[in-house]
Amino acid sequence: MNLIFRMLWVLIRSLFCARIEDNRFVSEFSLHVLPNDIDINFHMNNGRYLTICDLNRVDIFARSGLLKAMFRRNWIPVIAEHTMTYKKPLGIFERYRVKTEVTHWDEKYFYMKHNFSKDERIAAEGTSKGCVYARGIGVVSPADAIAAVEQDRSK
């Protein structure tokens, strides 16, 4: 619940940003480290990085049409694995850029690369793999998820 305003900002922002075309799934934006992002060392908490990656994924879902396709079909996104390497701390109120890119997919998972930077220096970077899941059915292949987006666009 503590990221509800950022989530709303991402969803509203996605309405005005360019649609994702040609399966180039990339999300990038600037944020500030807020007081609710920090730990006892007064820098961004390691868990917050993973949550910010969720915001990038929501942006990708919204701008690609996958969010609409998932709602229509009662599908949910699931992260199966996530790793993050922390290189430089982000202090309170510092501005940083975060970028998430879907690099490829196979028959089950989408694979993503995450990058947090400040002043052109890498603060953290990581990878994740995720899938689209249909309750009662199981994993929806990325090819089928993309086909659903294309089907919805043609309506």
From TrEMBL:
One Pfam family, short name: 4HBT_2
InterPro entries with a match to the protein in the record: HotDog_dom_sf, THEM6_lcsJ_thioesterase
Name of the protein this chain belongs to: Thioesterase superfamily protein
Protein's organism: Sideroxydans lithotrophicus (strain ES-1)
